[in-house]
Amino acid sequence: MEQFGIWLAALLTIGIISFLYKDNILYKACEAIFVGVSAGYWFVTYFWDNLYRKFYLGIQGAELSDQIFLWMAVALGVMMLTRLFDKIGWLSRWPLAFIIGATAGLYMMTYFVSNAFVQIGATITPPPSMETIGDKISFVLIAIGTFCGLIYFFFSKEHKGAFGGAAKVGIWFLMVTFGASFGYTVMSRMSLMLGRFDFLFGEWLGLIK
Amino acid sequence: MLKKLYALAPFTVLSLILFSLFFLSITPIAIAQDSTDIIIEPATETVDDAFIEAQKPLAPTSVAAIDLDNDGGGAVLITWDLSVDDVEGGKVKEYLIMRSASAEGPFEERGNATLGIGRFTDNQAEVGEPYYYQVVASNFARSNGDYSWKAVGTSQTIGPVSSSAQWFNSDRTWVLVWMLLVCGAIIFYIWKAKSGKKIYIRKIAGIEEVENAVGRATEMGKSIYYVPGINDMDDVQTLASMSILGRVARIAAENNTRIDVPVSRSLVMVTAHEMVKEAYSKAGCPDLFQDDQVRYLTDDQFGYAAAIDGLFVREKPAAIFLIGAFFAESLIMAETGNSIGAIQIAGTAMPAQLPFFVAACDYTLIGEELFAASAYLSREPKLLGSLKGQDFGKALFLLAIIIGMIMTLFGVDWLSKMFIVR
């Protein structure tokens, strides 16, 4: 049975990799299996995790206030299903409005703190060491990069003159960062690819001991 | 006979050398084992009351327990002055924090603190329940994981103390001040925009090209694909993506060009369905909208990517929009779109994925440009005012960076402390 699993995994891996050559029948089969199995897997996961564990088990012995919250969630879920009926389909907009509104409200503070406030603090907080000239240059470079990067993201002022120059410096900083990030991420993808080849030539073909 | 003996001589010598080496290698082990025995010997020392009394450390003093400030309840902060025996090579090995529901006990261990540490947070207190605490300076010896002996110095019992939740986190007062400033600016500029003041928005290349991309698809008689990322509706990038989708779908509907929206989340499917349907209605052609234009594929990240790749190469759309939250699948999709020659406009605020979009797509909305796009496309006063207000907030932050840097270089750090968030 284990050998069957290894063979199946190997054939599916080859099927997906064959897309690099061109779209073909093997890739189509692998894609359909992947999409179908994963969609089914997530359906089962959501059912047991949400409906069974969080609702069915959660409501047993829960206090009244907690029960009300759980029933509210169920009501919103049922309202979502009203999309299936033309006449009352408009009810499904209510849970959507709830989710979008709650998301906006909840993340307003989180994003303001983590994406703005803390970043400013980190920029102007002196590094642990400011003794060498290198430390000082790093500190100034970080500040210039942040300053010019922010200038680039001004939308209500035309990027002209000194302001435009600073914005250009900002986009240069961004591009250099992207380049470094690109190289780093490609290396991590390489390790994923090596993992698959290790499986194919090791576990499957037994060529790597 | 002698010749035979001579012939055996080298083997005899070699055997002797090997035997000697073997003997020498054995001997030190025997010595080491002897010495180990000697070291272990103290374990057999007599552990009586007098010995324990001699090993007993002095208890920590000035123990205090208070409800932890600025939290949601459920935490008590215990502080103490270190034991006099808490010195290098002293009698204290660790501090144990004991808790009881009554002053008489029994006390249960809630955690420990290492040498030199005079504080501990009990994070498992029930809100409103009174507790009593003791801090125990502990000295011990272990053998095979068990205590050979243990001697403790117990502080006086303190309490009762109960935890409570605070409505306002005073550590974040400055966050509130800045938030009020930015929100105030946004409300002010929305009001100004609504009252008719024209607000300038600079060109955003990626957004400028939306109409061209749709026009290209119309001319070629091919469809448009709009991929809204793999996160659910609880991600602001997906929210922004839905807003842009509404505009793109409307332009597509006006041009009588089919737009397909394959999604990976059920809630995104519902929202995208509403957005596209409404866009067709606003364009005056609700009958052209078909339910299968917005379809669910799978929640799985790479299953979704595999399906999108298949759709791209089979349908060969003329324009592809990759706008939303993307992860490792970003390059897989963008590269496939690039290989079929589609014009690609991408947008995300995921820093790790932006390089891939920049490399593989024709236009990329970088970070905040994604959020500005809907205002740029719709030109609604509310969104334009909001964008202007956010720019005001950025100007304030820039000012803080400049002043903060100058102060830091001169060794003044009160401004940087303002931005520390606990």
What descriptors fit this protein?
heterodimer, A: 209 residues, mainly alpha, 6 helices, extended, B: 422 residues, alpha/beta, Immunoglobulin-like, Rossmann fold, six-stranded parallel beta sheet, elongated
Short description:
In chain A, 79% of the residues lie in helices and 0% in strands. Chain A has 209 residues and is mainly α.
Note down, in words, how this protein is organized.
The complex is a heterodimer of chains A (209) and B (422). The radius of gyration of chain A is 27 Å and the shape is extended. Chain A has helices spanning 2-17, 25-59, 64-81, 93-124, 133-152, 161-204. The two termini of chain A are 22 Å apart. The relative contact order of chain A is 0.05. The mean pLDDT of chain A is 90. In chain A, helix 1 (2-17) crosses helix 2 (25-59), helix 2 (25-59) packs antiparallel against helix 3 and helix 3 crosses helix 4. With 209 residues, chain A is mainly alpha-helical. Chain A has a domain at 130-209. Chain A has six helices and no strands. Helices cover 79% and strands 0% of the residues of chain A. With 422 residues, chain B is of the alpha/beta class. Among the domains of chain B are: 51-161, Immunoglobulins (Immunoglobulin-like, Sandwich), CATH 2.60.40; 210-361, 3-Layer(aba) Sandwich (Rossmann fold), CATH 3.40.50. Chain B has 13 helices and 14 strands. Chain B has helices at 2-40, 49-55, 173-194, 205-208, 210-220, 236-254, 266-282, 301-315, 330-339, 354-360, 368-378, 381-409, 414-418, and strands at 61-67, 76-81, 94-100, 108-113, 119-122, 131-143, 146-154, 158-161, 224-229, 259-263, 294-296, 319-325, 343-348, 363-366. In chain B, the strands form three sheets. A six-stranded parallel beta sheet of chain B has the order 11-10-9-12-13-14, with helices on both faces. In chain B, strands 3, 4, 6, 7 and 8 form a five-stranded antiparallel beta sheet that branches. In chain B, helix 6 packs parallel to helix 11 (368-378), helix 8 runs parallel beside helix 9 and helix 11 (368-378) packs antiparallel against helix 12 (381-409). The longest helix of chain B has 39 residues, at 2-40. Chain B is elongated. The N and C termini of chain B lie far apart (93 Å). The interface between A and B is large, with 62 and 69 residues.
